[in-house]
Design a protein that fits this description.
Layout (H helix, E strand, L loop, with lengths): L4 H27 L3 H27 L6 H17 L6 H27 L6 H22 L5 H8 L46
Helix pairs in contact: 1-2, 1-3, 1-4, 2-5, 4-5
Length: about 200
């Protein structure tokens, strides 16, 4: 079983958070008028459900329980955001979705780093793919609103936009599996990613 409380917390929050995001995207897709936007957002919703399934598989492998509290909170948050998309206009759902996805990129980078610190590498590929997909989601939402006059105002208060991102990944410069652990440096576990550790995990 896993004995790293930070990794356990990340897994539980990611599992439930993907449900909140998927519910939110249901409302977002329903609220937009463009057929292309509907299709893109619905695909992002599908990606979130797929990520939730991948995280659950890891949790089950290491005996990490689903947090009932996180599940309840995520259900409520997701449904409220979903409903709000119909009344807050076009810009804000795109902005806050991009802001959220920007942070989610590092969530999966951190998971990989923490697993690696425990000498577990079997999840490297799927965690890399999920972080890449979250980055692609962020790029989609950013590209949709980058020319909006509202973006500088929102960026000033919510710290995401033209000049601020919540991760340091640049797809144009390349993002590769073998380099994943060097990204998202603003977390304490980065310093421990390659440090010798006791074997704290066994498969169950």
């Amino acid at each position: 079983m896993l004995k790293d409380p930070v990794l356990i917390d990340l897994l539980q929050k990611a599992y439930s958070g993907e449900k909140a995001a998927a519910f939110a995207y249901q409302g977002h897709a329903g609220s937009v008028k463009s057929a292309d936007e509907k299709l893109a957002i619905r695909q992002i919703e599908i990606d979130e459900w797929n990520h939730r399934a991948e995280v659950l598989a890891m949790m089950q492998q290491y005996g990490v329980p689903v947090s009932k509290l996180q599940e309840a909170k995520s259900y409520l948050i997701g449904k409220v955001i979903s409903a709000s998309c119909y009344v807050i206009g076009w810009f804000m759902p795109f902005y806050f979705a991009g802001n959220l996805e920007s942070g989610n990129v590092c969530e999966y980078v951190r998971m990989k780093r923490l697993f690696n610190a425990l000498d577990i590498t079997e999840h490297d590929a799927v965690l890399y793919e999920m972080s890449l997909k979250e980055k692609e989601h962020e790029v989609y939402f950013y590209e949709s609103i980058k020319n909006s006059k509202m973006l500088p105002f929102f960026e000033r208060f919510f710290k995401w936009g033209n000049n601020n991102k919540k991760n340091d990944i640049d797809l144009d410069a390349g993002f590769y599996l073998e380099d994943t652990n060097r990204y998202c440096p603003g977390y304490g576990e980065k310093k421990q990613a390659h440090a010798p550790v006791d074997k704290a995990v066994q498969q169950v």
